[in-house]
Amino acid sequence: MSNDALSTLLSAVASHTLSHIDALPSLPTIAVPSLLRNALDNIPQRLPEEGWGDEKTLQYLIGSVVGGLAQGQSGPRYFGFVTGGVLPSALLADQLATLYDQNVQVHLPTQSISTVVEARSLSLLLDLLSLDPSEYPGRTLTTGATASNILGLACAREYALSRAHPGYSVAEDGLAGKACDVFVAKAHASVVKAASVVGIGRRSVREVGLSPEKSGGLAFDLKVLEELMKDGKAKGKGLIIVAGFGEVNTGGYTPDIPKLRQLCVCYGAWLHIDGAFGAFGTLVPDLKPFVEHLCLADSITVDAHKWLNVPYDTAAFFTRHAQILPSVFGPSPSSGGPAYLTSAPSVSPAYPALEAVQSIPSPLNVNLENSRRFRALPLFAALLSLGRAGYAELVQRNVAFARKIGEYLDAHPGYELLNPHIESAPHKVLLNIVLFRAKDVDATELVRRINETGRCYVSPTSWEGRGAVRIAVSNWMTGLERPEGPDDWEVVKEVLEEAMRG
Prior knowledge:
Layout: H1 3-23, H2 33-41, H3 54-65, H4 88-100, H5 114-128, E1 138-142, H6 145-164, H7 170-173, E2 180-184, H8 189-197, E3 205-207, H9 222-234, E4 238-244, H10 257-267, E5 270-274, H11 288-291, E6 299-303, E7 315-319, H12 324-329, H13 352-355, H14 376-411, E8 415-417, E9 433-438, H15 443-452, E10 459-463, E11 466-472, H16 488-501
Parallel strand pairs: 2-3, 2-4, 4-5, 5-6
Antiparallel strand pairs: 1-7, 6-7, 8-9, 9-11, 10-11
């Protein structure tokens, strides 16, 4: 392809991008049914014998495929799951990441700065969370909270069984009949998946939470927990506690982290905190009592493609025990790794900035992946663009918006706000998740009515055995004042009123 032809196609993509961003606050949250059907009808069934070429392919993508996508998923009123958008700085950096197409696997600081950018991004993220980077030297970027939780349980399994059986390494010798217990209180499904993946087993994930009235079910029954840990230690089991910061239905936090830490010290257990989005409560002043003990974890999961509003798929994993990551994910000490995947010795003249980054570990030795996209660049750009103050404003604005919805629902005669009352909580809606149901409308029907408007999107869920609805506010655009275009709060209120009328 000539440069002129490429320039024309790039201009077409740029034009489409600008039009989409400009319309995003007003776009339907999901695909328009007619455009979705058109996209489905026109998906090729077989590989073309002769390729279409770049121009026709792009015309097809813009003219058909993108019409079948959820148009407003990255917009301000897509409240499903826990979904962020894409900050302008992250969008631009993501294009650069694709353009330069770095494979961020081996640390080669005299050849590429990509591993340095990733390492610095992780350090900046720890700073944003008010965590001392020196306390969490084990760190890496992953594809999401699920991958980070897999890393967390893999490291926890290695640590806990080495404590129960000194000198033993699961990474080297396998489980060999040895078992671990993972103690949880209303854990995310990805924790259960992680237990399956790392060989601990789903049945070894043990629910030890108090009733939902107690901190939304995130509080551990400490007396029962200690009895189970005492029994597990006597049986030679590895012991792991997983706490949650930001429960998906309520946004709640596991309390009593110092007591959980004490139990871990007493019984040789590992404390993992799944803080996919709740960890960013550190940026909300009135949530300090709920998040101040994040620093007591052995390992931490956080997502970036949620509240940091960078593109999918980006998350982070942190651990105090840096040496465990390469012991699990690196080459065996007995055989070593492939020679072609080792950092080459520096032959360039040394200078201070280069010397300072020589010790960064190769990402492939501390992560699941060998081949890795340069997902650090959009994160790096977003952190630099917004800084601490910018992210604090974003998170606080989202929390305030969610709390406003909660107050409206709580006062409405037709709705029931379900966020559990938590002693010492500043508001019924603690973080950014609003849990509710209609008093006289089935939850499934309520979700259908809301989502079919195309003006807001919510997720169905279940709470205390009954259907419910949840709203998750985590987009950088939500609640921003717009001289032209819809006011997010007025739209939400109108949609909720219309849903009650049917």
